[in-house]
Each structure stands twice: as C-alpha cells, then as structure tokens.
Amino acid sequence: MSKIWFNVILAAGLALPVYAAPKKVLVVTTTLGFRHSSIPTAEKIIGKLAKESGAFDVEYVQQPTEPKQPAKPKPEADEATKAAYQAEMEKYNAARKDFMGRMKQALSKLSPENLKNYDAVIFANTTGDLPLPDPQGFLDWIKAGHGFVGMHSASDTFHGFRPYIDMIGGEFQSHGAQVGVDAINEDKTCPACKHLGDTWGVFDEIYLFKNFTRGNVHALLSLDKEPNKKTPGYYPVSWIKKYGQGRVFYTSLGHREDVWDDDPNMKGRKNPPEVSKAYQQHILAGIKWAVGLETMDATPQKQQ
Q: How many Å apart are CA 48 and CA 34, to the nearest integer?
C-alpha cells in the first residue's frame, strides 16, 4: 500500500465520530416505610427512557421479599390464640432480621467503593432510613461531582439524617387527597420544562415540605396555592440544585402509575397519556442533567 493511501485511510479513520459510552445510573427503590404501588411502573419507565434515549444504562437496587407481620389478637382473645400469636411473632422477628440482612446486602451497591462504577443514583419512591453502608460517604460521592435524582417520596427518606435532607433540598411533611393542580413553569427555557407551557395540569398526590429554603434551589415547577385548601402561598413541586460539585434533580410527582406510564389502556386513568409523556420528558431531562449530559442553570432565582 502506498504511503499516500495509508495517510488517506488514516485521516478518514481519525475523522470518524467518537461515541461516548452511556452513563451508568443506579436506580434504588427500596423502602422501610410506605411502599408505593407505582414502584414497578417507575422501574419500567426509567428503564424505557434509558433504552430509548441511549444516554444511560441502568442497574437496580430492588426490595428483598419483606415478611408480613402477624395481626395482633384482640385483648379478649383466649390464651391459645395469644400463644399462637407469640409463636408467629418469634418467626416474624427472625424473618425480619434476615430481611434486614438482605436489605443491607442489596444496598451494598451504594458503598463508596461500588459507587465508583456509577455516574448518578436515582431514589425512585424510596422511604425510611435505609441501611446504606456509609450514608455520609454517599453524600460525599454526590458532592464530588456526581448526580442524584429524587422522585416523589425520595423526600420521605432519611428523616433521621439531616445532611441528606440538606442535599435533596426539602423534607416531606404531609399531603392531602390526590388532586388536580396546574403547576407553574418557573423556567420555560430549561430542557426539563420547556415543553410544559406556562402551566402544566397533572393529577397526583401533592407533597407539602418542611426544611425547604426557596433561595437554595433553582425552581422548575411550583404552585401558588395550597393544593387542597387552595389558600395562597408558595408550594414547590420540582427543582434542581448544586451540591458541592454534584447535581441534584428532585420532583415530588410520581405517586400514581398514570403519572409515569402513558399506556392508554391503563385502568383507572386520571391523567391522559399526554401528561405521562410530558412527565417522562421532564424526568429524562433531569436525569441527563444529573449525569452531565444536559445543560441547566441551577442558580436560585431571585424571588419576586
């Protein structure tokens, strides 16, 4: 082969586009409190978004089978019934201990060493004080430049660990009955919101927060009245924020299956499929920002 042709082939090879490997995202859906029926749907939709976008690959930390606590007999129950209950409780306590061991094993993927394999972690409807190998080490990993995405009850997680609440930006306090709301779009140029218009109608369980400071986050969606009582005020729904060098995206939406899934044949739909598709686009942009593939301005807005 002549030197000229070799150089031409070499130059052509160098000109070929270089495709980056997909980012790696760990999806956590474990719970030690209320467990949402929408969790399997959330896992499915996040996996679908990963596959369709090609932007990231997902692994899951899923719930081990949890033992069911026996029902306590009434005070007037006979002694045989009470004795049987005590025997069942002994079995339950042993099974619960085994469950917690398996939970810790599942969550070992979030050890500082294992986290080196991921670009972001998603808490999708987690609840309770989860037995992470090193909770502070997890926060340090985010702060060092990685991503965290929290969905719905991610803010109902680690109430006993205030640094986590500071990281995510707010703590679940309460909610009323599921209700339709018109969420105000606070950043119409943001990839997570530019498709939503001035307001976006959605039917879901709407959270109220404590330990939330408006000046610490860049708001994406909010309400200007209490969702159920309709009294005027500021009620955050979705936001982003920096945490050290890390990127945090949180949305309080995602209680209902039909917020996540756009299947038109889903029974009992309150949200039309278009709302679900808009939600998927909202969280996809949030995930892509968390892993560093999307640009968003996380500067807190000046309050009016």
A: 25
DSSP-derived letter for residue 209 is E
217-254, pLDDT tens digit by residue?
999 999 999 999 999 999 999 999 999 999 999 999 99
pLDDT tens column, 85-109: 999 999 999 999 999 999 999 999 9
CA 222 – CA 5 distance, rounded (Å): 61
Longest dimension (CA), the chain: 99
How buried is 186 (Cβ within 10 angstroms: 0-12 exposed, 13-18 middle, 19+ buried)?
Answer: middle
Which tokens belong to 51? 């596959």
The residue behind tokens 């996040």 is 46
Whether residue 61 is predicted with pLDDT greater than 60 in this model: the reply is: yes
Q: How far apart are CA 204 and CA 68, in angstroms?
A: 28
- The C-alpha atoms of residue 178 and residue 172 are separated, in whole angstroms, by 15
**Residue 245 corresponds to which amino acid?**
Q
Query: In the Cβ-directed half-sphere of 231, how many Cα atoms lie within 13 Å?
Result: 2
Dist CA 75 CA 61 (whole Å): 41
CA 114-117-122 angle, 5° bins: 85
Q: What is the mean pLDDT of residues 57-74?
A: 96
What separation in angstroms does the CA of 60 have from each of 67, 107, 268? Answer: 21, 10, 28
Strand partners, 172: 209
CATH numbers and ranges of domains, the chain? 23-64+110-290 (3.40.50.880)
User: Do residues 278 and 266 make contact, with C-beta atoms less than 8 angstroms apart?
Assistant: no
- For 273, counting Cβ atoms within 10 Å of its Cβ (0-12 exposed, 13-18 middle, 19+ buried), the class is middle
Taking 3-state DSSP, the helix, strand and coil percentages for the chain, each rounded to the nearest 5, stand at: 35, 25, 40
